[in-house]
């Protein structure tokens, strides 16, 4: 009986997620009256703005993941090793992006770094991209930190560190060659969530006037009927494809380490 309920819950969960996707795919094929066609997909894929905005968001997502790893892995490791009493404080700080709306964060950026301030980052495209990158890293911080902290909880961090130090390893080597490879699975989990957040984010990119994928989807959805459904399907497939590629790379890296 328990197995029946488990299968029933699994089927209901799958239907809950798959039925909207199937409906979106079916609607995206109805651009030509009375028959199914790929006209909406051709229209989206032939639009230069689609390639530009999606490429921009993918690049920003990868940079966000790199920045998140550089910030979170050493911090979570040091808290586990030296500052366990501050762990509740760090966890509270990393949860703040879930409470503070993105629009508040981006307005703070605009207020502090506008062209009349001491550091006018919004006056150049590179400075605005940097602000957007920091904003994305802030939004992804709760997911990346939780994933890495969970990965570190499965390790004896203190014993590993003492063993590495006894062999003459420095802090950079310990983190890069010992800690990071052991939490790579947790890092990839946080990276998946970070990637999905950046691809669909609208508020920060729109207010900072960056050519990101989120504002493009909103603009297309406000002016077209079938193309937005096709764009949603394409974005879903491309996002999962990129995540699968990242997972494949991490597995290949793990295989190479075990072979060594």
Globular, elongated, flat, extended or rod-shaped: what is the shape?
globular
Can you tell me the CATH topology? MetI-like fold
What percent strand? under 5%
Helix count? Answer: 12
Low-confidence stretches: none
The CATH architecture term is Orthogonal Bundle
Written as H for each helix and E for each strand, in order along the chain, the element string is HHHHHHHHHHHH
Q: What is the C-alpha radius of gyration, as a whole number of Å?
A: 22 Å
Main sheet record:
none
In CATH terms, the superfamily is MetI-like
Question: How many independent structural domains?
Answer: 1
Distance between the termini: 48 Å
Helix and strand content put the structural class at mainly alpha
Number of distinct beta strands: 0
Transmembrane segments: 54-77, 89-110, 130-148, 183-208, 228-250
Subcellular location: Cell inner membrane; Cell membrane
Membrane topology: Multi-pass membrane protein
Main location: membrane
């Amino acid at each position: 009986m328990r197995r029946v309920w488990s299968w029933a819950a699994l089927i209901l969960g799958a239907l809950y997620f798959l039925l909207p996707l199937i409906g979106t795919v079916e609607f995206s094929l109805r651009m030509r009256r009375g028959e199914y066609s790929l006209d909406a997909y051709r229209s989206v894929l032939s639009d230069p703005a689609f390639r530009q905005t999606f490429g921009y968001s993918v690049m920003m997502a990868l940079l966000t993941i790199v920045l998140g790893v550089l910030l979170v892995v050493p911090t979570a490791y040091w808290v586990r090793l030296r500052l366990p009493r501050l762990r509740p404080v760090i966890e509270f700080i990393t949860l703040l992006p879930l409470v503070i709306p993105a629009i508040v964060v981006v307005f703070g950026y605009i207020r502090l770094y506008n062209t009349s301030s001491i550091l006018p980052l919004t006056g150049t495209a590179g400075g605005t991209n940097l602000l957007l990158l920091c904003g994305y890293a802030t939004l992804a911080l709760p997911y990346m930190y939780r994933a890495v902290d969970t990965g570190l909880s499965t390790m004896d961090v203190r014993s590993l560190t003492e063993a590495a130090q006894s062999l003459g390893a420095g802090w950079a080597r310990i983190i890069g060659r010992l800690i990071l490879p052991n939490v790579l699975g947790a890092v990839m989990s946080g990276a998946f969530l970070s990637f999905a957040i950046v691809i669909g984010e609208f508020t920060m990119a729109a207010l900072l006037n960056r050519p990101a994928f989120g504002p493009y989807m909103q603009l297309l959805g406000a002016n077209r009927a079938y193309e937005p459904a096709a764009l949603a399907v394409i974005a879903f497939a491309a996002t999962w494809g990129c995540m699968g590629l990242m997972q494949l790379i991490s597995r290949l890296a793990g295989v190479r380490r075990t072979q060594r």
